[in-house]
Amino acid sequence: MAILNTARYGKDNIRVYKVHRNEQSGTQDVVEMTVGVLLQGDIETSYTQADNSVVVATDSTKNTVYVLAKQNPVSPPELFASIVASHFVETYKHIHTAEVKIVVHKWTRMTVDGNPHPHSFLRDGADTRNVEARADEGKGITIRSSIAGLLVLKSTGSAFHGFVRDEYTTLPEVNDRILSTEVDCGWTWENFSTLNDVKAAVPKFDETWNGARDITLATFAKDESASVQNTMYKMCEQILAAVPMVKEVHYSLPNKHYFEIDLSWHKGLKNTGKDAEVYAPQANPNGLIECTVAR
Description:
By secondary structure, the protein is an alpha+beta fold. The protein has helices spanning 44-48, 58-71, 77-91, 195-200, 202-222, 228-242, and strands at residues 9-21, 28-41, 95-105, 108-112, 115-122, 128-136, 140-154, 179-189, 246-255, 258-260, 279-281, 287-294.
C-alpha cells in the first residue's frame, strides 16, 4: 500500500519590485526581489483523492505576495518573509507550515557629479541578500539570513601545506598562493515566538547582515590563511561573538583555483614560484569547503 509521506506546494520565482517615494526629499528607494512560497498542512487529499478543495491556488499565492508587498514594508527581507509566512498559517486553518524564501537583488544608488542621484541605480555585483523564513502553527517563526554569490580574491597571504601525502597525492605544498572563492554565508536566528517578536528585532537584521559581510571581507583580507577551513572558522567565531541572537553560522566556500603556467619552453622564460605573474584561472573541478559553527 502506498502512503503519502510528505507534501508541500506553492509558487516559486515570484518577481517583485517596490519603490518608496520620499515626497519631502524627492528621493526614491527601490527593492527588487525573487520570492518563493511553499505550503504544508492538511492537503493530502489533493494528492490521493484529487480533492482540490484544500488547495490554495499557486496563482493566489503569487497575488498574496503582491498584496502584502503593497501593504507592508519589504525591508528588511527577514520581516517581509515572516509577514508572508505568518499570513498563510493564520489565514488558512488547514495550512500549518509556510516556508518563504527571498533573494534580494542589488540596486545601488548612483553617484552623479559627486552627489547621490535621487532615483538612478546600478547593479554593482552579482551577490545577493537571501532569507528563508518558516512559520509553524503554534511553534513560532524560524529565520535564516545569508549572503550569497560574493566573489572575492586575494593575490597573496594564503598557504596550504602539511596535508596528507600518499600514493594519490600530486598537489605540491605551497607557502604562498592566490585565494579566491564565492562566499555563501548564512546564519540562523534564535526562534521567534510571534511576528511581533520579529518586528521588535528589525534593527538587528540589517546591522547583522552588514556586520557579517564586513567580518567576512576583513577576515578574508587580513588572515594569513593556513587553509580555507581555518579562515572560515574564524569568520564564524566572530559573527557568533557579535550577535547573541544568532545560534549558528554556516559557510560554504568553493576554492577557485589559479594555476601557475610553466613558460620555460619559451626561451627559458621564468613564470613559476617567486617569478610567477601569469596564471590560468580554472573552472572545474574546484575544492568545496563547508562548516557550521554553533554555540
